[in-house]
Amino acid sequence: MDTKKYHHGDLKNTLIQAGVEILSEEGVGGLSLRKVAQRAGVSHNAPYFHFADKQALIAAISTEGYRILYEQLVMIRETYKADPRRQLVEAAFMYLRFAQTSPAHFKVTFSNAVEREEAYPDLVAMADNLIGELIQIVDACQKAGILHPAPAGAMAVSVWSAVHGFTSLYIDGQSMHDRLKVAPVDQLLIFTLNQFTVADWSEDHFPLPE
Amino acid sequence: MDTKKYHHGDLKNTLIQAGVEILSEEGVGGLSLRKVAQRAGVSHNAPYFHFADKQALIAAISTEGYRILYEQLVMIRETYKADPRRQLVEAAFMYLRFAQTSPAHFKVTFSNAVEREEAYPDLVAMADNLIGELIQIVDACQKAGILHPAPAGAMAVSVWSAVHGFTSLYIDGQSMHDRLKVAPVDQLLIFTLNQFTVADWSEDHFPLPE
DNA sequence: TTATTATCTTGACGTTGTCAATATTATAGT
DNA sequence: ACTATAATATTGACAACGTCAAGATAATAA
Fold it and tell me: Does the nearest atom of strand C lie within 7 Å of B49's Cβ?
């Protein structure tokens, strides 16, 4: 934004992007400040003029993860404006797809490499944005009679817990899914989502997307 | 077991225990091979005669986490032999309490610091034990008409996803709960659990423990 | 008792996060 | 335009870390 056109131009965002790239190429273990600096073409100490320490860079990468999820949620709400059920199922699969495509970024985003969240207001704000969109979808589903009419906040916690837990367990070595082999992962996610519908369990209330 | 009575006696388990202690005192970031060795009273290289590398020690600590959860699940099943509903609710709260009491150990156990699970058969075996107990509880609940009569494996995935996701989101800075403040965490867990019951949402099917 | 193996120590190397000191470039004030 | 100041970047250093190599010590086997 305003951190531009000095020596490098926009080093801060370049560093964040370099970090995301390293995460996708080498995983969480490969992320180091010095490697990020090298990829951005600056000295090993240049990042310290944009991030207080490694934690701060990780917080920024985490914020970027929240932003990606948030923006996709906004798009989904616009695309399926009149179809709350579709919004919910698309949101759940978007979440899973992000974790499948960028597992290291997903882990860093949530895996509390950031200890003291309150020190990173941008991160908190973006997480708030994400939660806000989520509640809107849950609220719309409740108004449409798809989800139980409990407080939207509580229902959002439950639904997000299920989708987040499902996704986390899946990408962590597929600990469970590989061993159980009870169904393809997409169908299992639908099954999990269906637990939250008002009607009888035996019908599929959420269709598979695509 | 058989790795005993040499110079130190039982260094392998001592190292694992030292790692668990460091996790509880300094968190995930404070865990290093050299500190573990120092706490066990051996040189910085002694651990390499019991663990191939740091990953292997982390895998052992992760296995220990699975063992703790598994053994508590076994105890719960024995204690409430005739009450599947109680088994499920106690299991869920045991899970949350472990994460609250030992957040760093909980994170290490699941947070796939271990990349190639198949290289650690003990870890896979203990995770299988845990999943097995979980399925038994779910199966008992289904037979008692508490959970929907879907395949027990699929239902176990869903329920565990919800509990695990709920717990993960809670300890990761309480990202969501703190911001929503919709209800105390215990009540929210019960609410989440109730989503999986057969009957109407408006009744509480799982009581708060204690 | 000797040979062998398992266990542990010491020392070294490259990488990392971070601090201090210095240099360079952009902006502000005159 | 010119200087002062702040923002940005480099270089160098240090301790801590993971890991390898070489040697020492203690338990077991022959």
Answer: yes
- Amino acid B116: pLDDT: 67
- Rounded CA separation A182/B178 (Å): 35
Burial class (CB in 10 A: 0-12, 13-18, 19+), A27: middle
Show the tokens assigned to B145: 């008409």
For residue A204, give the DSSP letter. Answer: -
Distance, C-alpha B16 to centroid of its chain: 16
Q: Is the pLDDT of residue A85 over 70?
A: yes
- C-alpha triplet B79, B209, B143: angle, nearest 5°: 55
- Quick one: A132 and A171 in the same domain? yes
Distance in Å, residue A210 CA to nucleotide D22 C1': 62
What tokens does B107 get? 């994170």
Asked, for residue B44, whether it belongs to a domain, the answer is yes
- What nucleotide is nearest B31 when CA is compared to C1'? D17
Which residues on A lie below 8 Å from B185 (Cβ)? none
State whether A39 and A74 are in the same domain. Answer: no
Two tokens at B12? Answer: 């392998």
Structure tokens at A71: 């923006």
Q: What is the pLDDT of residue A168?
A: 95
A203 or A26: which leads in pLDDT: A26
Would you state the structure tokens that stand for residue A1, as one six-digit string?
Answer: 């934004």
CATH number at residue A121: 1.10.357.10
Tell me if B206 is assigned to some domain.
no
Report B:94-113 residues touching A (Cβ under 8 A): 107, 110-112
Give the pLDDT of residue A183: 84
Task: Establish if A128 touches chain B: CB-CB under 8 angstroms.
Answer: yes
Residue B7 counted as domain residue: yes
Beta strands per DSSP E along A121-173: none
Nucleotide nearest to A43 (CA to C1'): D10
**H or E element in which residue A115 lies:** none
How many folded domains does chain A comprise?
A: 2
* Domain match, A16 and A93 both: no
Asked if the model's pLDDT at residue B205 lies above 90, the reply is no
Test the B interface: residue of A161, A169, A180 with most B CBs within 10 Å:
A161
* Res B1: pLDDT: 32
Residue ranges making up the domain that contains B158: 54-194
User: What whole-number distance in Å separates Cα of residue A139 and Cα of residue A141?
Assistant: 5
Residue B56, chain A, CB below 8 Å: the answer is: no
